[in-house]
Design brief:
With about 300 residues, the protein is mostly helical. It has a single domain (about 35-295), classed as MetI-like (MetI-like fold, Orthogonal Bundle). It has helices at about 1-35, 55-60, 60-95, 100-110, 115-125, 135-145, 160-185, 190-195, 200-215, 215-230, 235-240, 250-260, 265-295.
Length: about 300
C-alpha cells in the first residue's frame, strides 16, 4: 500500500511539470508550425492556409541565402576555434602548473557574462575606424609595429561574420577547456606509462591515446557549441547592429516578425531553426542513450 501511495505521489509531483512542458513547449511549437503554414501578415491574425509557400519563398530569397552562408562561416570559425583553443588551454593546465586554480578561473570567467556584454566590449576592441579615431586591436597593432594586421574586422566584405566569431570563441573557449581538462584527468596514467615503456614519443601519446579518448568530449562540445552558433543573435546585434552583410536567420526572423509583421514567414524561419538544432541534438541524444545502454 505504501508503494502504491508513493507512486501516486510521484506522479502527482511531476504532472504539473509535464503539463507545463506540453503546453508551453510542444503546444507553442505546434502553434508556430500552424502559423508558418498560413498567410498571416499584419497585426490581425490570418490563418488562411498557405501550405509550404513561406518555406519556398524563403529558400528563393537572396537574403536567406546570405543568412545560410553567414551561419556556416560563423559555425565553422566559432566551433573550430573554441575546440582548438580549449584543447590547448586544457593541455597547458594539465601539466600541473602552479596556480592552476587561478588560471582555470580566469579562462572560465567569460562564460559568466552574456553575449550582449561581450559584444559591447568587442565592438570597441574591433573598432574599424582609422586615423585619430583608431582604438582597440588596431591601435595595439600600430603601437607594436604590426600594421599589416590592422583590418576592418566585422566591416570586412563577405568575411566580417568570422571576425564576430572571434568574440564568441573568447567567451566559450573556457567552457571547452573545462570539458577537455576533465577528459584529460580521466585518462588512466597506466596507459601513458605503458606506451612510454614501449618507446612512444609525446606526439605519439597525444595522437594515439589522448585524442582518441577525448572523442566523446569533442562530440559533446561540438553539439553544444553548434546549437549556440545556429541561434546566435545578441552577439551580432551588440557588435554590428542589423546589417544585411552580417545577417543570420535569428535576426531575419526578428525583423520579419516584429518589424515587418509577417508572422507567417517569421514562424517559418523559427521552425527551420528548430529543425536545424534538432538535426544536431537528436542524433547525439540517441548516441548517448545507446552508449549508456551498452554500459
Amino acid at each position: 500500500m505504501t508503494t502504491k501511495n508513493e507512486r501516486i505521489l510521484s506522479i502527482a509531483l511531476v504532472t504539473p511539470s509535464i503539463l507545463a512542458i506540453l503546453i508551453f513547449v510542444y503546444g507553442f511549437i505546434g502553434w508556430s508550425v500552424r502559423v508558418s503554414l498560413s498567410q498571416w501578415k499584419g497585426l490581425l491574425p490570418d490563418y488562411t492556409w498557405a501550405g509550404f509557400k513561406n518555406y519556398i519563398d524563403l529558400f528563393s530569397d537572396p537574403r536567406f541565402h546570405i543568412d545560410i552562408r553567414n551561419t556556416l562561416i560563423f559555425t565553422i570559425t566559432f566551433v573550430g576555434g573554441s575546440l582548438l583553443l580549449g584543447l590547448v588551454l586544457a593541455l597547458l593546465l594539465d601539466q600541473g602548473l602552479r596556480g592552476e586554480g587561478f588560471f582555470r578561473s580566469v579562462y572560465l570567467f567569460p562564460m559568466a557574462i552574456s553575449f550582449i556584454v561581450t559584444g559591447v566590449v568587442w565592438r570597441w576592441l574591433m573598432n574599424p575606424a582609422g586615423g585619430t579615431r583608431v582604438s582597440g586591436f588596431n591601435l595595439l597593432f600600430n603601437n607594436l609595429g604590426l600594421e599589416f594586421l590592422v583590418n576592418q574586422w566585422h566591416t570586412t566584405p563577405k568575411w566580417g561574420i568570422a571576425a564576430i566569431a572571434l568574440a564568441a570563441i573568447w567567451q566559450m573557449s573556457g567552457y571547452t577547456m573545462a570539458l577537455y581538462l576533465s577528459g584529460l584527468r580521466a585518462i588512466p596514467g597506466e596507459l601513458r606509462e605503458a606506451a612510454q615503456v614501449d618507446g612512444a614519443t609525446e606526439w605519439q601519446l597525444f595522437r594515439n591515446i589522448t585524442l582518441p579518448l577525448l572523442r566523446p568530449i569533442t562530440l559533446s562540445a561540438m553539439i553544444i557549441l553548434g546549437h549556440i552558433s545556429l541561434k546566435v543573435f545578441d552577439l551580432i546585434i551588440s557588435i554590428a547592429g542589423k546589417q544585411i552583410p552580417l545577417d543570420v536567420p535569428a535576426i531575419y526572423m526578428w525583423q520579419t516578425t516584429f518589424d515587418g509583421y509577417f508572422f507567417g514567414r517569421g514562424a517559418a524561419i523559427g521552425i527551420l531553426l528548430l529543425i536545424s538544432v534538432a538535426v544536431l541534438i537528436i542524433p547525439y541524444l540517441a548516441y548517448t542513450l545507446r552508449t549508456e545502454a551498452e554500459l
